[in-house]
């Protein structure tokens, strides 16, 4: 799972240049995410990890933190 977190952090850090994002920080609460970026994040997750994010997976809780995204990836890849 740590390798997945590294990839997720690298992707997010390109968009949150002046913030050292911690794995449990809520990217929505920090104000970094708009609707366009949310879609980019979903597309990144699907493309990078070769999974399909279904409608039922499109819950903010699955994308709020690096930890949550990594957990979703692990669940979908299993």
From TrEMBL:
Domain of life: Bacteria
Span of domain Carrier: 1-77
Coiled coil stretches, renumbered: none
Database matches in Gene3D superfamilies: ACP-like (1.10.1200.10)
Transmembrane segments: none
InterPro entries: ACP-like_sf (IPR036736), PP-bd_ACP (IPR009081)
Name of this chain's protein: Acyl carrier protein
Species lineage: Bacteria, Bacillati, Bacillota, Bacilli, Bacillales
């Amino acid at each position: 799972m740590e390798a997945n977190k590294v990839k997720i952090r690298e992707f997010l850090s390109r968009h949150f240049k002046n913030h050292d994002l911690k794995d449990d920080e809520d990217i929505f609460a920090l104000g970094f995410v708009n609707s366009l970026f949310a879609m980019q994040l979903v597309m990144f997750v699907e493309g990078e990890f070769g999974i399909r994010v279904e409608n039922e997976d499109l819950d903010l809780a699955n994308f709020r933190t690096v930890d949550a995204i990594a957990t979703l990836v692990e669940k979908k890849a299993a």
